[in-house]
Amino acid sequence: MKIRKFQPEDYDTIKKMTLDSFDGVSIDQQLEKQFGLINHKNWQWRLAKQVEQDVNNDPDGIFVMIDDGQIIGWISSLIDHETKIGHVPHMAVRKHEQGKGIGRQLIMHVMNLFRKNGMSHVQIETLVQNEAANALYQSIGFQDIANKIYYAMELNNLESDPDGGHKEEV
């Protein structure tokens, strides 16, 4: 197994891998369960857009794990030189390869990259229901620092006077 930089021809593989491995632990999937398709787009389409944004934002910050000529995992990373905080927006490992330390190796790879680039901290996030990711991050030494609640509503359910009758004075 080896880790190498992302190449454009890896895109379709990492997109499919992400869709497969995020099934059950995607915010977008939870949104769809609550409201159904949004604007005729499913959760997989929205998640694929996020992968596309990672690739467009910083392809040099994306790494893939190769085993036997096949991509078995990938990770995206962002370096913020101003805050000195490295970010991990996405990581995915093929379902049948999970639990073999691939995610740990990918995280350690980008943490070393962050150190080399002067970062003092690393930030990563996951959903509470993603038990595997939570266990992995805690085993590496990440600390739970905050919990975020995601709210959503359909705008066509919004009252015609959303500010409750308060008029803005001019």
Summarize the structure in short.
It is built from five helices and seven strands. The chain is of the alpha+beta class and 170 residues long.
Describe what this molecule looks like in 3D.
- The chain has helices at 11-21, 27-35, 43-57, 102-116, 131-140, and strands spanning 2-5, 62-67, 70-76, 78-80, 85-88, 91-93, 121-124.
- With 170 residues, it is α+β, with helices and mostly antiparallel strands.
- It starts with a strand and ends in a 30-residue tail after the last helix.
- The model has no long low-confidence stretch (mean pLDDT 92).
Give the key terms:
170 residues, alpha+beta, Aminopeptidase, four-stranded antiparallel beta sheet, three-stranded mixed beta sheet, 7 strands, 35% helix
Helix and strand arrangement:
Layout: E1 2-5, H1 11-21, H2 27-35, H3 43-57, E2 62-67, E3 70-76, E4 78-80, E5 85-88, E6 91-93, H4 102-116, E7 121-124, H5 131-140
Parallel strand pairs: 5-7
Antiparallel strand pairs: 1-2, 2-3, 3-6, 4-5
